[in-house]
Amino acid sequence: MRTFPPLLQVLLAGELRAHVGRVLVNVVAVAIGVAMGYAVYLTNRAALTEFSQATRSLTGQGDLEIRGPSSGFDEALYPRLARLPQVAAASPVVEVEAHLPARHEALKLLGIDAFRASAVNPGLIGRPAPGQRDNLVYLDPSAVFLSPAALAWLKLKPGDTLTVQVGLATLALRIVGTLPVTHEALRLGVMDIAAAQWRFGRLGLLQSINLKLQPGVDMKAFRQILLSMLPAGVVAVTPEDSQRITSNLSRAYRVNLDVLALVALLTGAFLVFSTQALSVIRRRAQLALLRALGMTRGSLLRLVLAEGVAQGLAGALLGIALGWVIAAGLLRYAGGDLGGGYFPGIRPTVHFDAVIALAFASLGVVAALLGSVVPAWEASRAQPAQALKAGDEETPLARLRSPWPALAAMAAGMALTQAGPVAGLPIFGYAAVGLLLVGAILWMPRLAYWALGVLPPGRGAVSHLALAQLARAPGRAAMGLAGILASFSLMAAMAIMVTSFRVSFEQWLDTVLPAQLYVRASDSGDTGYFSDADQQIIAATPGIARAEFMRTNQILLDPRLPPVAWIAKPIDRRHPEARLALVGASITPRANDPPPIWVSEAMKDLYRMHPGQHVSLPLAGHLVPFTVAGIWRDYARQYGAIAIDLDDYRRLSNDRRITDAALWLAPQVHTAQLVQSLRQRLPGPSHIEIKDSGEIRSTALRVFDRSFAVTYLLEGIAIAIGLFGVGASFSMQASARSREFGVLRYLGATRRQIGAMLALEGAWLGLLGVAAGLVLGLGIALILIYVVNPQSFHWTMSLHMPWILLAAVAPALVASASLAALASGRQAMSAGAVRAVREDW
Question: Residue 225 half-sphere exposure, CB side, CA atoms within 13 Å?
């Protein structure tokens, strides 16, 4: 038979044509897994590419960017760096995120020296509009050049007025031209640097300096020289560092979505395994006959593997096309960040890459191939003489009852939960989840053999036959049981994790939003603030029992990581838990200790800070010693935040600006009345944002749900694939049991009774699968909560069970399994009893 490959082709085509429904289910399962993984990759890559290109266009031909805190650093650093022999050109920059009235997104405005910037980044030199040819327009303190993307976004044109907020007042800027940069994602405005410092209250301050180095300068050695020259809180970053920081912002979120997509693909691989295994069992006698007629074991192995590869290839090609469509839809409706909020304003387009498409298609083929390996190996190893006998279907499945492979996989998974992250990603945590799932599926034959063997005999004929069938054929029952286990455990694990996160998030909001009313100078950007006079007006407004003010700033501690937030607000050293969601106890510094700070969990993970430690941090251009007094939970800032008492911050930084105010109302004072009073007393009442705590909570929870929207979608797809597997498993079992149904019909059983028997079998398997899935789901959820999330996002949460959801889904899944068993048996029961039994004569 080795010399007849066309025969293998005929057998392969015949088998695929004979069971079109099963083949389509496998193809669709693989296609969905490939499509979701490909779509997530395309979407994230498009967003990162667009964002990185936009970021790179800001530095132009610069080799290094000297970057400081968002509040700025002393401009005296600029001439010192410009005079260095290694520097060919230096361009100082003032950078602000300007709040635009009636807009929820800020506009980036850069203040540049047009004469210096021309040597480093000519793309920032504006092109005056017709009628603005005077070179002095570059020095006009009211002139601004906007990029084409900004003009389109704001629906403005040269000659129009751009209104921005400064403090609680407004500043009118005249649009005098456009910028040469044409990147669609770059919403940017450029004005004279001196005008920007003056207009935005940043005299003597810079946010960055772009350096172009002399040819041949050793970058590494030059950065070492800069270390001794740069003030505290100011770092030198390369364009590659900036792109890495941009990527790091969303990396954990992207990887988690990729893993969820991979779960869908693995579920599809399991579905291929289940249907292929049951197909081999159903055709056991036919395959044994081929072996008896001379087909070699290798040829039979290739035949079964070819069936899986053919289905995987069809699913992979369909998945690539479907993934492209899904990615285009996600980019249009969910944005490049897939709801995560990492790339606001980015609307990239999807681009085809043949190599990436081939890689994802290969994943689909490999998944289907892996799903076919065990059934193919079993088919090729079977003894023809024994396999030709009727009733031998349970023999190959009996080998799966050994508990040792399952125990080994689960033990390895539990051991991996103790490993730390790899390059900031919970690689071992994901591996632990996979091993736990594989081990549990391998355990199913043993569980079925034990659980179904101890079931008491049914009282009626139908229940007796159903329970007897399950007890005598636990191997086949385990196939359907594994499908239910996979789908329900993944659903339960994700539901437990999301519920735990959401409840913990709500509890965190209760701690960080203690006041009844919150006032913000602007809802975006960093140009809105409350002056000392504004703060006095707020505190003195009738109806306010207490007012607390807060200031937020950003510093860059590590050029490889995104900035860290400074949060200055009133904190009682004796009771910091009143304003911070503390994790563990807080210490009280001694009299001679540096002032206390409280750091978020991310600071503990990324910067190795711990309570009682003395650290030096940059503040107002100087390294200031502090005492780490405690660790607090912060769900708003993934890469770290530092909380400090407002009085200490003002004393050490001399920064009096305030961005937010928390207000407690006096008794009998209505919120609407107080809001009206504040707007009447404060200047620029239309610019300030006033919300009560309930409104902020609702908005925050909507953002939370939006960020998990794609997660819910991927979870639902994985569950749907698992349910397809349940139906396919029961369908294959029913087809393999056609002779059994024929004998029962001869003995007097009606189709209705056989249907009831199948429905009861499905219900029993569903009940057992749900029970095992709940235990497995809880185990996976614990890994997600206590390993994956802390290592991915650097925050913790407490465990909360979604009992109502689980109580609603579990009976529905049991009912679905029962209906799937009943529906799948209808075709087998429709065959004539004589024809079904004749196969065994």
Answer: 12
Residue 304 to residue 398: CA distance in whole angstroms = 20
* Domain residue limits at 553: 514-694
Backbone angles phi, psi at 172, to 5 degrees: -95, 125
Cβ atoms of 625 and 615 closer than 8 Å? yes
d(CA 16, CA 304): 11
Q: Are residues 175 and 83 in the same domain?
A: yes
- For residue 684, is it left (φ>0), alpha (ψ between -120 and 50) or beta? left
Q: How many angstroms separate the Cα of 70 from the Cα of each of 208, 484, 555, 745?
A: 9, 53, 7, 81
Beta bridge partners of 111: 94, 191
Pairing of strands 622-632, 596-600: parallel
Token pair in block for residue 67? 């970057």
Helix (H) or strand (E) holding 598: strand 596-600
Report if residue 242 sits inside a domain.
no
- Cβ–Cβ contacts within 10 Å for residue 61, how many? 14
> Which token pair is 767?
């009940």
Last residue of a domain, one of 694, 725, 740: 694
CA atoms within 13 A on the CB side of 581: 22
Residues 219-257: tens digit of each pLDDT: 889 998 998 899 988 999 887 777 777 666 667 766 777
pLDDT, tens digit, for every residue of 783-822? 999 999 899 888 899 999 999 988 988 888 888 778 877 7
Tell me the CA distances in angstroms from 193 to 106, 185, 635, one per residue in order: 19, 23, 36
Give the global pTM: 0.82
CA angle 827, 833, 835 (to 5 degrees): 90
* Alpha carbon distances (Å) from 330 to 316, 341, 687: 20, 14, 33
401 within some domain: no
Domain count along the chain: 4
